[in-house]
Amino acid sequence: MTKKILIISSDNTGHGHKSITESLCEKIGMDHDSKVHVVDGFSLGGHPLMNIGKTYGPITRRSENLWEKVFNYSAENPELIDKFIEMLIRKNFLKLLDEEKPDLILSVHPNFNGSILNILEKEFIKIPFITLIADLVNISPLWADKRADYIISPTIEARDKCIEYGVSAENIKVVGFPVRSRFFRNSTNKKVNYQVGTPLNFLIMSGGEGVGNMKSIAEILFDQFDCTVKIVAGRNAKLKAELEQSLKGKYGTKVDIYGFTKDIQDLMFQADIAFTRGSPNVMFEAFASNTPIMITGALPGQEQDNPTFAEKLNLGVICKDPSQIETKINQLLENDAEKLNHIIHCQRKFINSRAAEEIIQFMLEVENRFEWKLQLA
C-alpha cells in the first residue's frame, strides 16, 4: 500500500532545507511505493509567518550580529517560539492533515518541530513524527524535541548535542547528510589528483544568499596564481552586478560570475579548490563532488563550528583572513600537492552517498512499526 509522507520544509531560509528535501524526494520517486507532499512550513502561517521567513536572507547578508541575536533568542526560548508558531500555523496545518492524510510527518526545519508536536498532542492525533536535523554541530534546542518519535542526525556532534538537550540516545539515528545525486561524480567525471604546474581552477561561492568578500578573494587569486575564477553570487543580484563591474573589465575571460544557478555541481566538478562559507549544505555538496574547500567564515549560531568540523576531518581548510590565502594554497600544493590530494581522499572516505536512501528506508521502517503497534492496541 502506498505510504503518504508529509515533509515540512522551507523555501526562503537559505537553500539548504530545500536541497535536503529534493534529495529525499528523488529517492522516494525512484525506489519506493510512497507519495510525498512538501509544504513550506512558513506558508502555513500565512503572510505574517512568510514575511518572517523572508527576512532570513536580508538579515544574514547585511547583519551577522543581528542574526546572532535572533539565533540566541530562539535557542534560549524554544518553548516560546514553538507556541508562537503553533498559534500561527494551527488552522492551516490541521486543514493540511485533513486533506493529505499523511502516514508520516518529516520536519527538516527547526521552527516546525515543537510547534507541530504541540498541535498533534493537543488534538490527540497519532501520526509518526520524525525530525531531520539540517545543521552539523551547533544545533538549536528547537531541533531536539523529546516528543519526536525519532531524530535523524547528520553527525555524531549533532547527536551528542541532542543528548545534552535531554533526548534519549535510542531515539536518535545518525545517518549522514543527504545530498542530491547530481553532486556525486561518476566514471566519466571522476576526480583525479591535482598535478602541480597546471593552471588552477578556483570556485568562489557563499551559499544561496551570496555573502562574503568575494571580490578581495578573486583579486588575490589572480595576483598570485595562474588561474581561472568562477564566482557564484547566489540570490544577491546587487553583489553579482558589483562583481561584474569590478572584475570583468580587468580579468576578462579568466573570470565568470553567476547568480543563483541550478548547475552548481558542474562548477564544483571543474574546480580544484572552492572557497565557501560554512553552510552545511554547500560543504556537503562539495564533499560529494570531491572538491577541496577553503572555508572563509560562517554565520554565528548554527554554522559557528562547521569550519572546525571540516578541518578536523581533513575535508577542507579554514582561511578567515584573505591575507593568508596565498600561504594556505601554497601549503596545499607543497610536495606535489600532498595536502590537497589528501583532502580529496578524505572526502571520498567520509561522504555517505546513500544517506538519502537510508533516511527514506528508516522512515518507512518507523511507519511500519507504528502501524503494527496500532493494530495490536
Task: Describe this entry's structure for a reader.
- There is one protein chain.
- The chain is α/β, with parallel strands linked by helices and 377 residues long.
- Helix content is 49%, strand content 15%.
- It contains 14 helices and twelve strands.
- The two termini are 21 Å apart.
Structure summarized in a few sentences:
Helix content is 49%, strand content 15%. It has 377 residues and is an alpha/beta fold.
- What would the principal axes of the Cα set say about the shape? globular
Element pattern in H and E: EHEHHHHEHEEHEEHEHEHEHEHEHH
From the alpha carbons, calculate the radius of gyration and give it in angstroms.
21 Å
- In DSSP terms (H or I, runs of 4 or more residues), the helix count works out at 14
| Average pLDDT rating | 92
Helix content: 40-55%
**Order of strands across the widest beta sheet?**
2-1-3-4-5-6
Count of β-strands: 12
Unreliable sequence segments: none
Which structural class do you get from the secondary structure elements? alpha/beta
Bin the strand percentage. Answer: 5-15%
Distance between the termini: 21 Å
What can be said about the biggest beta sheet? Answer: 6 strands, parallel
